[in-house]
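Sequence in, structure out. First:
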Amino acid sequence: MAESFGFILGEYTIPADQPVIYITDSNNARTLQRNLKNSSSFTHRKLVRTVKQGIDYSIANHLEHLTSKWPREDQETTQAKQTYQQGVDTCKRWSTQQPLQKTVAADDKSQHSLTSWDDRSDSSSESNASTGLNPLEKKNRYYFDASMYDNLGRITVIKVFSHQLNTDCTIKIPNKHPRPNLFVVSANQFADNAATQARLLSRTLASNIDTLSYPAFSPRWCFSFEGKITNKGATKVLQERMDLELLLRQQLRKKQGLFNRLASFSGLRMEQIGDESLLRNMIKFTAPCWTRCIYRHPPIVHQIWEYWRNRQSATDRENIPIDIPKNWKDIPLIRDHLIKACPFCGSFGVEGNKIGNLEHLHLYCPNIYLQKARDLGNQNLEKAIYDVYNFAAKIQYNCSQENTTRTTALQEIMEQVARETELQERPVARSSELSYETRTSNKAILSKTAIQIKTLLGQLPASKLAEYDTYPLTAKLGFIIFMPEAEYDVASATITDVGFLGIFPKPILGELRRYARELKNLNQDYEAFLVLTNTLVDALIYRGAKVQKVIHILLAKIKATLQPFGKKENPVVLPANPTPDASSSTRTQRQTTPPLATRRCYAIKCRILHSKGIIRSPMTCAANRNICSGCTNEHQKHKIVARIEREIFENTITNPSLAPLLAYRTQPTCIRIFRKLLQDLPTFATKDRNDHKYGAARYIANTLGILLLDTPNCNLLDQPLTTPHRNNNWRQAKMLCKCNSSPSHTSVDYGTRRFCSTCSFLIAHPSVSHITKCPGCNTNDSWEVIGASCLACQLATLIFRNPFDLRFQTLAATELPLSDSDVESADTYEWPRQQRRTPTSMPTNEPALVRLRQLSISKSFQEIASRSSSAQTKYVFENLGILRTDLQNTFGTQTGSLKRDSTSQQSGSYHDTTGDENLSPRTFKLGKKQLFSDKSQSTVSNATTCSTLTAISRLPLMPIDLNARDHSAEQQPVMANWTTKKQSRMNRIKADKMKKKQEILVESHTT
C-alpha cells in the first residue's frame, strides 16, 4: 500500500510530460501499476476480482484514475520521448552488468501476468538466520536483471531487493556489490529509514495525535484522499464529512443558513445560544411569525380565505369561490396581498400589504405594540452604550460624558469599526450557490442628512428619522438600520443588517475587549468595564427577544379570531354591509353555531402547577384527548426517563468516557454536552432533536447531581439538588452493601449489578476476577481507589437510591393534598366552587358541642396529615394522636372541669356575657397532673442524682442513619429501659462529682 501511495504522490507532484523512473521493493505495487496500464486486456470482472485484489480498493481505483490521464504516445513531445529512451537504455545497461546466477523465479513482464509476491516474508535475513540456513543459499539479494523493471510508455518501474544495506547505508554483507548500483539501493534504504522512524513516532504519540497528514489529492477523491490518515476508523471520518457537508449545504439556504454564513462575523458562539431558546429560534429564522404560522399550520390558509370572503359584500361573495384555489401560491395577488400579508399593519386583500415575515415584524411593522417593544429595547441599548462611553470619558478626560463636548477615542474607534464592518466581504447565497460580495458604501448605517433625504423621497418612514434623533448612539453603531424594506434581503445581509436577531458583531466586541485589556495593563478598573460590556451585549440580545414575545401575543390573538372559520361542518357567515336584493333575500343564511365546550385538563402536571400558583387554571385538553398537550409531553418524558434509568443500570460505560462528567458537578453545562457525554446509552446515541429527550436529560442530570444551565420554566417539577445533598449522594454512591446475608435478604438484579432491597446499596460481586476490577460489575476498573466502584456503578447507585419517579411522587403528595377521587373530570371552564352555608341554629346541649368539637379536631388532623406523607410525620402525629385522645377523655365528658359551662357561651344578654367572663377559674388541688395512664409510665430512681425519669408510652427512637435511602424510614423498636453509652457515662461522671462534693462537705464539717 505504501508503494502505491508513492505512485499517487508522483502523479500529483511530477509534470505529466516528464518521464519518471520509480524505484520500489514491492512486486505488488509494481504488478498493479503494470496491469492498470494494460487494463484494456482484462474484463471488468477479472479487473475487480484479480488485478485490484490484495491492495486497498480505493487506492487502486485512484491509481487507475490517474493512470487513465496519462498523455497518449502521439501527444508526447520529442524531448520527452528522447528522455524516456535514455531511461530505458540505462535500465538495460544496469541489467547486463556482471550478471550472477539467480536462485528465484523471475517475474513475467507480460501484460497478462498477474503473479506477484510479498518481499516482506522472505526478504529478512533474520527470518532465514532463525532456521539455520545461509541466506545466500535461498536467495541472492545482490541481483538485478531485465525481468526486474517495466517500461510502461511514460514511466519506468524498477524492482530492487530490500535490505542490501544497513541503516547507515553500508553494505550489509561484506564483499558484495549493491545491484543495480549504490545510488538506486541507497534511495530505497532512505525510504525504509523514514518508514521505520514514522512507525516509532506513531507508537510513541498514538494516544496524543488524532490524525496523520499527507498531501491532499484531487477533489474527486476528497473522502478517501483528503489529506488525512485517521486512527479513529472510517466511520468517524464519514460522520465528520457528513457534518461538514450539512454545514456547507445549510449555508446555501437564504434564511436558515444565515448564522452559518456569518459565523465568522458573529460575537456569539453556538454553545452560548443554547439548544432550546428563543434566541436560537430567531437566529435560525424558525421563530413564530405570520409566514411561519402558515408554513407550520396549513389549515390557516383556508381560515384566512373564508374570513376575507365573508367580509365582502353579498354581490362580490357570489363571484368568489368558497374554497381557495389550489394554485394560490402561483397567484401573486392572493399570495402576497392576502395569505402572506401582515395582519398587524393592514387588512387582508388590500394591495400594497407587506409580507409578514420575521424581518418585517422586527424592523418595519408599524403596529403600535411592536413599536413600543422596539422603543423599550432601544432605550436599554442606548443607556448601555452611554454607560460605556461615560466610563471611557472618565478615564480619558476625568469627567463624565455630559460634561465634555469631545468624543472619546473609544467612541470614535467603535463607530469607525461599525462602518467598516458593514463593508467587509461576506458570503452571499444566490441561485443555490455561495459567492462573496462587498458593499461599496454603507446602506444600513447612514448619516442624519442621508436619512432626511430618503424620508423626503418616501423611501423611509418618518419614524426612522425620529429613531435617529432619539437613539443617536445606537444608530451610529448600526444597531438600528436605515435600509428601505424593498432593498432588504436576508440572502445578502451583512452582520450589521441582522442586529435585530441579537447577534453582536465580532469586530465591535473585539474593540471592547481590546480596551478592557488596555485598562488591565494600566491597572484601571477593567472589571467594571467588563460588566458594562456584558450589559451592552445583553441589551442587544433581549431587545429582539422582547419584540418576539409581543409577536407571540399578537399571533395568538389573530389565530383566535380566525379559529371559527375554515370549518366545513359549521361555517361562519358574516352579515353583508350592502342591502340584500331579492335574489339574495331568498337564500337561506347559515346560522352560526357556538363552539363546543372545551374540557379542562386534570392530569397531575396541571394540578401541580395550579397548586403552586403558576397557572391560574388547568390547561385545555387537546383535541380528542382527555389531557392537554403539556401533560402528554410530560408523560412521554417520564417514560424516556424510566428507559434511560434502565439503560444506566444495565450498561457498563468505561471510566474514561464518564470522567469528564464529574467536572460538571460544580460547573454548569448545557444539555447538548450532557447528552454527548452519555452517548454510549442507546437513547442518547442518536442525534435527533427530540424535546422529550431534552426534558428527560434534565431530570437525569438532577438525579446524578449534574448542574445544567437554567432555561425558562426548567425546574418547575424537579428542583436541582443542593450542594450538600449532592455531595452526600456521591459519597454514598461509593459504598457497598453491608447487610448480613439471611433468607429474608432480597436483592434487585440489573444485568451484572445487584442492589440490596434493605439498604439500597450495591451488592459486591461474589468473585472479582482481578483486584483492580470494580466489585460491583466485575467489568470496569475501580475508580481512583482499588476496591472502589467504577463510575458506571456509581451512576447506577445514584439512580437506584434517588430515582426520578420517587421524587415526582413526593412532589405530588406534597403539592396535592386531595386524593384522585376528590378531583372530578369537570367539563366546565372553572373549578367548581363550594358555597358556604350558614346554619340557622346552633346546638345548645353539651353532648352535641362535644361531638362537634371532636369532629373539628379530627378534620384538622386529616387536613394537616394530607399535606405530607405518612412516613414523614409518623411519630409527630402519633404523639399528637395520644395527646388528642387524652384531652378528649379528660375534658370531653367532664363538664365540671371547664372554666365555664356551655350555657355561658350562649348568653343572650350583655350582662350575662360579662358575668361569664368575670367568673374565677376553678381551683385544683396541688399536685402533678398525670397526663398518661400508669400503665404507660415507668420510674427510674437514682440515689446519686436524686432524679426521676418518666418514660413515655412510645419507645425511644434510634439514631438517624444518614446513609439510609429515606431519612424518614421506620426506626426499629428497642427495649423500654434502653439508654445510650453516652448517657451512662454522663451519669457516672455526675455521680463521681456528687460523691466528691459530699466527701469535701463531710471533711469540712469534721474540721
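Second:
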Amino acid sequence: MDPQFVSSLQDRLQQLAFASDTETLQTVTVSLGQQYYTTAACIPALLTVAKDCEQWQVRQLAAVELRKRVPKFWDDIDDAVQQQMREAMLKAIIDESNDLVRHSLARVISSIAKSDIPNQKWGDLIQFLYKCCQSPTSAHREIGVYVLDSLFETIGDTLSAHLQHLFELFAVLINDPESLTVQVTTLEALGKMADYVDPEDRSAVGTFQGLVPPMVQVLQKCLAGGEEEFAQRCFEVFNGMLILEAPLLNRHFGDLIEFSISVGSNQELEDSLRVMALNFLVWTTTYKRGRLQKLKIVKPLVDRVMPITAQEDPEDEEEDSPSRVSVALRVLNVLSTSFPPQQVFPVVIAHVLQYMQNSDPMFRKGAMLSLAITIEGSVDYIRPQIGDIVTLICAGLSDSDTAVRRAACMALGCIADELDEEVARYHEKLMPMIFSMTSDSNPTIVKYATNALDCILESMGDASLAYLPQLMERLVALLESGPTEVKPIALSAIGSAAHSSGEAFAPYFNEVVARIKHAMALTGDDDTLALRGVATDTISTVAEAAGRDAFRPHLDECTQLAMQGMEIDSATLRESAFCYVGVMSRVFEGEFAKYLSYIAPQILQTLRMDESSAFGYDTDEDPEMDDDDMPLGFNTAISDEKEVAADAVGQLFASTTTAFLPYVEEIAAELIKLLDHFSDTARKAATVALFTFVRTFSKIASPDPWMPGVPLRVAIDENTQSMIKLVLPAVLRMWEDEDDKMVVTQLCTELRLIMKDVGPATTIEYADSISKHLLEIFEKKAPCQTIDFEDDEDMPDEDEMAELDSLLICAAADCVAEFASAFGDAFEPIMDTFLPHIAGYAPSLAVSERAMAVGCLAEIAKNMGPGITKYAEALFPIFMGALQDKHAEVQSNAAFGVGAFIETATIDASPYFGDVLKALFPLIQMSDNTNNARDNAAGCVARLILENADAVPLSDVLPAWIGALPIRGDHLEDLPVYDAVCYLLKNKRSEVEPCLPALMAVLKQAMSDPDTLFTEESRQYLGSL
C-alpha cells in the first residue's frame, strides 16, 4: 500500500469532513471519485485512515466511504490482504472510542460479511462477536451486539439458521445489567431477527414472545430516563413488528396497548415521547385491526384517547395542531375508518356532547376536532343524524372562543366534503354564520371559514343564488386584500360559487376570469405559486360552469398560461395544469385536440419520472440499497403528480378520441407500469385511465349496441379487442396481490362500468379469473381484507362492517350483477358459484351486508332475464323475508327484487301477489322516501299490474299506489309505473275511475319534471291525453 496515496486520501477526506461551503464539497467529492475511488487500492487505504487518523470525523467519513466501496472492490483484493484487513478491522472496532466511528466500522464489517460468509470466508467472525457479547466489558458487548444487528441487514438468511443460539444470547443481553445501549441495540437486533421467524414455527414464535416483556422493560427504562433517541428506536422496532406475518406480539398485545395509551396520556412525560406511544396506537389500529377487535378494547381506547384532544398546549395559537393532539386525532381517525362506525362514532359523539358542555374551551375545541376527524369513517352511519350534527357544529361556530370556532369550521368543512348535499340543505342556518366569520379579525378563523364556505357552496345549486351578490363581493375582497393563506381558498370558493350558480354567474364572469388569468401568470415564492396553482384549477371550474361558448374567447390564453406553469419547477403547478387539461378537454372535447402535441409529451414525461431520488436515497451511491429498503405506502410529490397525470390522460383521450391515437401506445405502456406503483392512489388512477382507454376505443369504433350472451352476438373491433388484451391481464395481475381496499373497490367499479358500456367482450376471456377474485371478496379472503389479520383466529365476528369494507363488498356485488347483464342466460354457471355466498349474507346481523345481498340478487334478477326462473325457490323467500326487515335500505332492495323477479321470470307468480302486496303496503304508506323504499315499492306494484292486473285487487291498491306517486328519487322506477298507468287507462279499467283526479294531478306533475323517465310509447300516449 502506497503511503503517499494514503496520506493524500486522508488530506482529501479531511477537506471533505470540515468543508464549510458547497463548492469545496463538490470539488473534493469529484476529486475523490476520479482520483481515489477508481481501483481496489482505495479499500485498504480507507481502512488505514478509518483506524489511524486522529480526528474522529475523518475516521468516520473514511469508514462510511469504505462501506460504499466494498461491494465493488472487495473481491479484487488479494486473499492475504483481505485477511490482514479483517483482523485490523476487528481490532480497530474494539479499540475505537467514538460511538459513531464504531457504528460505521460495524457497517463495514457487515458489508464485507455479505461477500465473505456465503463464500465460506471469515469463519471466525461470528465466534468473535459472541465473545464480544459475553465480555465483562460493556463497551465490547455494545460492539458485539451492534455488529450482529448490522449483519442481519446483509446476511440475515445465514444468521437465521442459528436462531436458537441467538435467542439464548439475546435473552441475556436484553437484560444487560450495566448498559442501556446494549439493551436497546439488542432490542433492535431482535426486531431484525423477527423478519426471519417462521410463522409456522411455534417453538420460535413462543420463544420470541417470551422476550417481549423484557423488550418492553427496556422501552420503559428509556422513557423513565428521558432517553428520547433510544425510546424512538425501540418504538420503531415495535412498529415494524406489527406488520410481520408471525404473531410475535399477540401474547402481550393487550399489555402493549395499555402501556402505549398510558404513556400517550401521561402529561408528565415529554411531548415527543407521548407522540411515539400514540403513533404506536396508529400503527396498531392500521395493521392489527383483528387483534383489537378480538380484545374488545376499541371503546376503552377511544375513551382514553379523547381526553388528549382537549389538553392544553402552549402552541395552541399556532396554525398547526399540537403534535400530541394531532396524533391522538389520527388515532381516532384510523379507528373510525378501520372499524364499524357503530363501534366508534357513538363513543366519540358521547364525549363530544359532554365536552361541548364543559366551561373549558379546550374541551369544546377537542370536541369539534374529534367530530371532524371521525366523520370520514362514519359517513353513511351519520347521514340520518345530519341535522343533529349540524346543530352541534353551529354551537361550535357561535362559541365565544376563537380556537373552538376554528375547530368548528374544520368540522363543517369535513362533513361538507363527505355529505355535501345533505349539509347544503341547512344553508339558511349555516351561511350567515360562516359568512360573518370570513370577516373575523383572526386570519386563521377567516381561513377555515372560507374553506368551509367553499365546501358548502359546491353542492348548493340554486340555493346559492340568494347569497351570490354578497358572496362574490366578499370573496373578491378576500382575493384582493385578504391574508396570504386565505387567497387560494377564496379563489377556490369563487369556482364553487360559479359551479353552483350556473347561468346566474354570468354577471361576474368577465371580472372573475380577468382576475384568475392575472393569478395564473404570477411568479415568485411558494405562496404565490400556490395561488397560481389554485387559479389554474379554478379557471377550469369556471369554464365548465359557463360552458364552451362563453369561455371559448379565453381558451387559448388560459391554456398557454397553464402550459407555462408546467415549465416552472413546481409539482403543484404541474398537477394543477393536468387537472386543467382534464376538465378543459371534457368541456371542449375535439376542440382541445390542438393542444395535444404539447400536453401529451408532458404527461408522458411525468409518467416516466424516476422516483428513486424522491425518498432521499441515492441507490447509485449506496449499492446495498434495494427495492425492499424503499419506504412503503409513502406518496412522494412525483407519485402524486403521476396520479393526477393518469387521471387527466384518461379524460383527455375520452374527449379528443382519434386525435389522441398517436400517443396511446406509449402512454398505455406507462399506465401499465403504474399498476405496480407503491402508491395506492397512483394504482387506482392508472386502473381508471386504462379502462377509459378501452371504453374510448369502443366509442371510436361506433359499434352496434352490444347484446347479452356468450359467445358474442355482436363482434367487437380489432383495436378495442387489442386494448382489452393489454389492459385486462395487467389489471388482473395487480389484483392478485392488491392489498388496498379502495384500489380493489375502484377496480370492481371499473369492471362493472366497462361491461355496461362495452358488453361481454371485455370479460368473456377473463370470467374465471375475475370470478375467483370476486369470490374471495365475498368470502372475506382477498388480500386487502386479510392484511389486518394474522390468522383465522384474528378474523372478527363482526355485527357490522367498517364502511370501507362495506364499500368493497358492495362494489363486488355490483360487478357480479353486471356480469348477469352482460352474459344473460350464460351467466348461469357463474350464478351457481356466487348464489350461496351472496345469499349467505341475507340473514347477516350487519345491515350493510343484508342490503348488499338483497340488492345484488335483485339486480341479477333484473339483468339475467328468463334464466333467473331456475332460482325461484332460492330467491323469492329471500326477497319476501327482506321486505319484513326493520331497515329501509333492505326493504327497498327487496321491493325492487320482487318486482324484477316477477317481471323477468317465466313462472306464474300471481298466487303470491296477495302476500307481496301485504308486505309492500307499509312501504307505499311511508311519509318519506328513505332509501327510495317508497319508489321501489311503487315500481313493484306497477310490475305486478303489468304482469297480471286481474290478480291485483285494484280497488284496494290504486288509491294507496297513486298516493305514493310521482316517483321522487329512483327515476328508473318511472318506466314501469307509467307503463302500468298507460295499461290501466288504455284498457279502461273501471277501478281507475274514482282515482282519476288524483292520477291526473300526478301525471301533470311528472310530465313537468325533466327528471321523469318514460318509454317512448308511454310518453306519446300520456301526452295525447
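Remark: Residues 209 and 251 are 7 Å apart (CA to CA).
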